[in-house]
Queue: 3 jobs
Job 1
Amino acid sequence: MRLQPDALSRRHFLAAGTVAAGAALLGACGGGDDDDTATTDSSDTTGPEDDEGYSLIGFLAQGVLAAGGRSRVPFGLGDKDGLLPVDRVPEALDVRVIDQTNSRASNAVRVARHAEGLERAYFPLELTFDKPGVYTLQAEFEGAPAELTVQASPDSEVKLVRPGVQLPAVETPTVADARGVDPICTREPSCPLHDVTVAEALQAGRPLALLIATPAFCQITICGPVLDILLDVMGDHPGVSYLHAEVYTQPDVNLDTFTPVVTQLGLPHEPVLVLVGADGIVTERLDVIFDRVELDAKLTALRG
C-alpha cells in the first residue's frame, strides 16, 4: 500500500504512516488520539505471530527510504500492547540489517535510545541501503528477538524530499499573508516561526530548519511536542533560519485539504523536520520523531 498525500485519510496521514513491507498504523499525531497502542492490518510483519515477545515498531510511511543514499529509520520497542515506557527500554540496542536473500547486510550497529523531552523512547538507526529491496532489522531484548521489515525503493521512485536534493521554494503562509491557511499555526500560543516564506528563507542564503507539523495533534504518544523541542533548542544555534509550516489548510473544518508544502515536498506523514544548507540542498530529514539530544546534534552539524 503506497500512501500519497492526496489519498490519505486523517487516520493514515497522522498515524506516522506505515512501515514499508508491513503496515503498523500508529496513533502518532492524530487529532485527539492519545492512545500509543499500535494497530495493525493483515499485512503487518513487524511483530511476533503469537502476540508474545517483542517487536521493533516502525514509524515511517511506505516508499520514503531511497536506496543509495543515507537513510534515517526511527523505530520504537514494543510488545503486544504497544510501545514500552521509557523506563523499560534499554539505553541502546544492537541492530543487524538482513537483506532479502537472508544475508547479513551489515555488522551489528549500536543505536542509542532517545527520549529527552518525550513520553516514549525511540531509536534512530542511520544507514545506507546499497540497493532497492526489502530488509529486516533485527535486535534482541531480554533474550527475545525483535524485528522490523523495511523497504528501500529506487531513488527515482521516492517522492519525499530527502538529503541531496534541492528544497522547493514553497510560498508558505506568513503572518502577513496566510495564503488561505487558517490558522497558520495550531500551537497555543502560536509560534514565532511564520515571518517569512520558505522561498524567502532560501533566498537569504542561510542554513534552514523547516518543520512541517500540526502542533495541536503532536503533543503526546509517538511524535511528542516536536515544535516545542525545536523552540527550546534553536536559541543554542544562531545563524540558522527556523520556519514552521502547518499540514492542513483548515484543520478545524476538515482534514482532507493539505497545504502546498505537503504536496510539494511529497510528505506521506507528519511531522517532518527538513534541515537545509545555505546552498538550498537538503542535508537531513528527521521523520516523525526527534528529541532534544538528536536535534541539538543535527543543528550543530548543519552549522558546520
Note: Confidence is low (pLDDT under 50) at residues 1-28, 30-50.
Job 2
Amino acid sequence: MRLRDLGEWELLRRLAAYAPPGQFDDDAALLNERSDRQLVVNTDVLVEGVHFSDATIGAQDLGWRAAAANLSDLAAMGCTSVVGLTVALVAPSDTTWSWVQGVYDGLSEALRAHGGTLLGGDCSSGSQRLLSITALGRLNVGAAIRRSDGQPGDWLVSTGPHGLSRLGLALLLEELEAGVASGLSQELRARAIQAHRRPRPRLDAVAALHRSQPAGLPWRVGGTDSSDGLAAAAGAIAAASGCGAQLDQPGLPIHPELAQLQQGESWCLGGGEDFELVLALEPAWAEALLGALPGASRIGALVAAKPGHVCWRESGAGLGSDGSGFTHFR
C-alpha cells in the first residue's frame, strides 16, 4: 500500500501507534519541565512544489512564512512565549547562496517580530529544496489549548478572516479571469497577497484569551489553527471533543469582496493557510474574547452530535467537499 492509498489522516493514525497515547492529537507536543511551565515542541516540513514555489514567493517571504507556520502551531497550543526554532535545510548543490540567505533573513525577521531565536539545525544536499523546522515555546501548566477540550454548547470563535491566503495565491498564479481580478479593490489584492506570503501567527490571540478569562471560570479552551482550512479546524475540534460542529453561514469570517466571488465561500471554508485560531469556548468567555480581540467573530457552536460532523446551523446540511480543506497524499 502506498501513501496515496492511505491518505494523510490514515498515515498519521498509523504513525501515532509509535508514540504515547494522545501524543499526535494536537498541533504540537507537550513536555513537562521542572517548573510550573511546559515546553511545547512542533515540527513542520515545507517541500518545494508542495508548499512553495519561486513562481509565487521569494526567499525572504518564504523564510517568514516557514517560521510563521510553525509559530502558529505554538499559538494553537496556547504558548505565551517562543523559545526559538531549529531549521534543517535540504537543497540541490546548484542552489544560490542569495536564496539561502534570503530564507534565513526572513526566518530571523519573523523571530524578531514574535520572539525566540534560531537555535541551530542541519543542512543536506538533495534533489529538491526542503525546510524542516522545529519550533519550541512555553506555556503555564494547565493553560494549554487542546482540540479535545471542547464541549457541547461552546461557541466557536475565529480570530480573523478566512480565504484571503487562497485568494492571494490565485492572484499570484493568475487563476482568476482578468475582469474578475481587476474588479477587486487594490486594498483587498494587497491584503490577500500579504496574507499568503506573510501570515501572522496569532500569539496575540493567546494573550487576549488570558486577558478575557472571566473571574472564577477555570481554564478550558478547545482549539487549533486553521492552516488546513476553517471547516477542517472546526471538524478537528469537534472530532477530538466527541461533538459535532454547527457553522453559521451568515456569520462566516469572510471579507465582503471575497464573498462576492464564485469561489469565495469555498475558499473561506477550505482554502487553508490562513493561520488563524479556531477556538471552542464557554459562551461568557467567548463574548469577552470578542470584545478583547479586534477582528474575532463567532462562527458557530459545538453540539451533541456525531463526532466530527460539521454542518450548517440554519439548514442542518453537511458542508460536503467545500469544507474538506487541505490534506497530503490525496
Note: The chain has a mean pLDDT of 91.
Job 3
Amino acid sequence: MEGKKLVVPGEKIIEGMDYLPGDGTYRSGPEIRAAILGLAHTRDRLVKVIPLSGRYMPKKDDPVIGIVTEVRYSNWTLDINSPYEAIMMIGEATDRFIDLKKDKLTNYFEVGDAVICKITGIDDAMGVMVTAKGPGLRKLTDGRLVTVQPSKIPRIIGKNASMIKMIKEYTGSKMFVGQNGRIWISGGNEELVLKVIRKIETEAHTSGLTDAVKKILESEGNGKEA
C-alpha cells in the first residue's frame, strides 16, 4: 500500500502478519481492516487510519470529558462523544468511601454534570470504563465546554503541547483538552480562545497555521504572560 486511500469500516487495508494494526484499524486473521471511515496509510509496517470526521473512538489512558447521562445504583453512565458509552463505578468516583446505604450517588455526580476523567479499560464488547480519581480529574463547575472534531485535537494541542500553551499564555484562560473532542475553557479571554480553536479546527490541514494563530493572539490577546 502506497500513499493514502479512503477506506470504510470493515474494509481490508492490507494483508500480512508483518504489518501491525495502529489507530483506527484492527486485525482479522492475517488481514488488517479499517475500524473507522478515513484515510489509510502505512509507515514502518504500522498501518493507521486517519479519521476524516466523526465521533471519538475510545483508547485506554485517554483523558476525556464525559457528560453524565444516567445515575444507577452503583455507577454512572457518561456520554464521551463516542458511539460507546462509558461507565464509572463508585470506587472510581472519589477517594472517599461511598456507603450505598447512606450516600446518594447524586451527591457526587448528577445527570448533566461534566467530568474530566480518564479511560481505564475497554473490553472486547467495547464496554468503556473511566475514573475520576487522579491529578486534574474532577467535576467541572465553571467555564464553558466546546466540542470539535476529535481528529483535530492533536493540531489544537500542538507538538509538545506548543499550541495549547501559546493560547493559554496570550489569553490567560485555563483549558483542558479531552481526546474525545471536548475542550473546557475557564476565565481570561474565553471568546478569543473559542475564536482560535475554531480557526485551528477549520484550517488544521493548512501550513503556517501556528503563525496565523499567533498573529491573532498578539493582536487581540492581553499580552503574553511572563
Note: The CA atoms of residues 124 and 171 lie 43 Å apart.
